[in-house]
Design a protein that fits this description.
48% of the residues lie in helices and 13% in strands. The chain is α/β, with parallel strands linked by helices.
Amino acid sequence: MQGHAALSPSDDYRRIGKAIQFIEDHFQDQPTLDQIAASVHLSRYHFDRVFKRWAGISPKQFLQFLTLEYTKQQLAESRSLLDTSLEAGLSGPSRLHDLFVTFEAMSPGEFKKQGRGLTITYGFCPSPFGECLLAVTPRGICHLGFVDANCRSEACEALFQMWPEATFHEASAQVAPIARKIFQPTPRENPRPFNLHLKGTNFQINVWKALVHIPAGRVVSYQDIAALIGHPKAFRAAANAIAVNPVAFLIPCHRVIAKSGKIHRYRWGAVRKRAIIGWEAAKRAG
């Protein structure tokens, strides 16, 4: 039992992610909690304990947040919130999440340099959704992505390709405190904005800025985001911009789902997207 208690949030997520995948694969069979627990080699008691430690609620309660009925209801409710944002304007008081996020886009000249003269410090850190790769420049966070087991080299290569002319310095101990503040802020901490240093087209930047208007625990559709940036017919282009979001979680692309209510399409895996949506919904409900 002590061994289970010593596990990190990333360790818990490895089991929970596998459990969510098992539920998806056997959805038609309506697996019992005992069967779900057995799929990750835990007793029902220990699985329930791990789940509550990770999400704060029971597996049964958590799964209710991932049903099609629930996501459809959330889409309808969130659309009214976005309508308020449109009425107030993107700089109005409806801006909730981006009180903790500030954007700095590269200038056209900097964009062309592809990172030349820039030093990027990066490292691997634990998170409630598995290991993540976090990278920062002197001006802010430029990358945050989740890393699957044994895929560190691929994650690094993708980062290096985004900034081909930059100088990279690995220092996990240096970026770890930033990751902790992102995923596990202490109640007494004074919330200071996370500065983001982003490389993208004007359209992409506008889409990423729009995403921070989605409150935690809510979901919207790709069409909603296109409308929010004033291009309601450009939802496919908006979806493409969302798909290449370089800063996971802080720019909450996971909160965008299909207008049918289905949860899929995520740069870091559909199972992880479901896990984050359910985790945030549980925090909001609590």
